[in-house]
Amino acid sequence: MNVQRLTSLLLPLLAPLGLAAQAPECPRGILDVRFCDEDGDLLADVPTDPAELVDPDTLIFSYTPVEDPAVYADVWADFLAHMEEVTGRRVQFFPVDSNAAQLEAMRAGRLHVAGFNTGGVPFAVNVAGFRPFAMMAAEDGSYGYEMEIIVPADSDIQEVADLRGRTLTFTEETSNSGFKAPSAILQGEFGLVVGEDIEPLFSGGHDVSILGVANRDYEAASIANSVKARMIERGVVAADDFRVIYTSETFPTTAYGHVYNLEPELAERVREAFFSYDWEGTPLQEEFSRSGEAQFIEISYEETWAVIRQIDEVTGVNYTAP
């Protein structure tokens, strides 16, 4: 299933009744008709009508479903306790098992603060009113991950050209490293068209793809190497279980932010929680130091996600069209 088809199936399930009739007349670029973008920053503007704002007693937080949600409930527990102190609100971890479920939750008003995966960020921005402001980075401020195509260590696939006529396992259609970037790179750099020269499979997650290659259930897979690094560090897989036959340029990683209509003072306290959090000795540090991350830094969707939007443009992704 291609990304446009996924979007066409997803959006009717998410769109509230009477949405088009209530659409405001305003500049919005490619944002959903519910939103405005008067300042041209590509993000949904915060509503000026207080009646359109949400001010919940309990903030709902979710982390992108790249691995087992149960693992990350514990990883995020200390940070969410910090957010409770800063915001004065209860904060609840909301485990999601797919990018579509996370997107649906924010669009439907059931999710207030989230970390969306790289490829899912433009969908969340344009369809659900996500306003990203932070990303994890190393101590020196560097950030990002690479898409890798991996094969079992003893595979006869030695280089990308050997994928012709073989199967390649992706994660989900909205994933950058798990589908969109490799599809564009394989066609643009190697003349290999997914669905014609390569048979696609979909695992549903980076961890599943990595385990599948390590266990020789998959011939090859495109994955985010940050996920692989954490799994190796935890001993879930070993580095010598597979070989890397392609490494991409560096992409931005998970973006953190809040829904566009969160009450502004509360939204500001949510931001403060991210940038005031002390990582030292925390479960967050223990988990994400495995992929070299040590702090939250401020980001600009317009600038930081430009390369991702370019990939989407090349591959014909349309975020909001039914």
TrEMBL record:
It comes from Truepera radiovictrix (strain DSM 17093 / CIP 108686 / LMG 22925 / RQ-24). InterPro entries: PhnD. This is Phosphonate ABC transporter, periplasmic phosphonate-binding protein. Residues 1-23 form the signal peptide. The keyword Signal applies. Belongs to the phosphate/phosphite/phosphonate binding protein family. Keywords: Signal. GO terms for cellular component: ATP-binding cassette (ABC) transporter complex. One of its GO terms (biological process) is transmembrane transport. PANTHER family: PHOSPHONATES-BINDING PERIPLASMIC PROTEIN. Pfam families: Phosphonate-bd. It comes from the Bacteria.
